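Review this:
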Amino acid sequence: MIEPGTRLAGRYRLEERISDSGGSSLWKAIDEILARAVAVRTFDPEFPRVGEAVTSARAASRLTDPRVTQVFDADDSGESAYVVSEWVAGETLEQMLAKAPLEPGRAATLLYEAAEAISAAHAAGLAHLCLSPRDLVWTTGGTVKLLGVATDAVLRDRYSDEPAAEDVRGLGRMLYAALTAHWPGDEDGSGLPAAPAGDDGVPQAPRQVQAGISHAIDAIVCRCLGIGAAEPITEPAELAKALRGVPRTPLPLFAGLGTAAPSPRPAAPKRPATPSTAATTQPHQPPVQDPTRPAQPQDARGPGRRGRGAHAQHGQHAQQHAQPAPSGQVPPPRGRYDTPPPAPPGNATTVAAHARKPANRALLGIAAAALTVIVGLGAWALSGGGSDGDKGAAGKKTDQGQKSQPPKPATVKLKIQDASATQSPADQHPDGTSRKNPSAVIDGDPGTVWETQTYTSEQFGNYLKALGVTLTLGTPAKVSTIKVSCPVSGGTLQVRIGSSRAPGAMKAIGEQSCSRGELTFAANPAVQGQYVLVWFTRLPAGLKGKLNEISVNGTAG
């Protein structure tokens, strides 16, 4: 019998059972070799799809998108089959929405990241099919994680003849929920309130449920869910492209995106304004988060497939238990010189305290007068009162302060000197096609295309590990953003920056899946270098890499 303390494969020590669902159990465990927390799913002996679950987990382990939960290990050769994946700490979308809907710009950003992750999974032949607000996590490290790709479909016995369209509908439901805090799907998909529906059972459009949602975002949700007569979105990459075209708000650097309205602050008694009371007034603070609200666990999962409905408790991964630190309600402070209550007669100590009050006010008046004199002298010195040789120390310090803050250099489009093909390994199976026209990516003509030859697999037929172009800037610069126009869908595109042409000496600043449009890679903070490498680490579905235009922005020097 599997119980806390059990070791699997001699290294994974089970610590705490998080959930039991559908013939499997989720555990928080410790990898004793690497000394890190991991999520381990074990299976009941009678679970009918153990082999399929392990196979799907192994397939998910090959996904490289950092927004997909990483699978570390999967085995069914011993007495106890198991799947080991990363332990994700943060807050699920459902937990965020228990407070209030998200601001539309943040909802668009969060679901854009999820659509990109699902697009990368579909490019690798995997799907989710069970998407709900419990599967999207904003981690304590400030990143987006999508749980259950490939494995959830097996665990819940889900199948679909149109996996891409099914996942688009799942993403559309999540976006609807993020905007309205209502769930437009099946009751077992989320604990959020059901979305209002018309007489035909079709959910109302988000703008009919929640104010402040733009027509553009509302139209995207309706196209995903088949609300109205607009052309439906059927591909995750198409959804990501649509969300890329609407205003998006950057996500904060901590878990927890709820926008609950603050509770009303009790009004402070009115009193005459004085320097002391103004100095001690505190800004309004957000309300204290209710510590009694139970955390909603979430499932840590990996690969996917298809749709029939078996009942399994969805999304209970304790990795999601971590909540954002509550912020305290700061009451209005008491004025420093509030008048105390009158002292009872005969109390010598209290009478003496009252006698000191006029003295305190006299000292305050002297200090105010001195401050006025100092400010006047400073203004006189700055306005040129007196000769250059007679300026005081205050004037000199002001001049020094002004000279020590030069204007920030403006970010501009950097000049690219040339472009050349680059591959890894450099000396193995040269791709002749890719070397014919690398300058096409910097010629300013979107109609010209740099492309690779066609391979037999997404991994370059096992000949290469990566293939792309290296741009040489006119001078070394601090690179902040790189924009890449990619006319194909799928695959994985990586960008590196460095002061050397060698790919291993460059710093990787990001990876994205192509989606027939412009991708933006941001280096924050900016990276110093003269060379920018843009290459495919996995080929698109057509097994041929293509690039149109690449531009680089930053500051010279």
Summary: The first strand starts at residue 7 and ends at 8. Confidence is low (pLDDT under 50) at residues 256-359, 383-403.
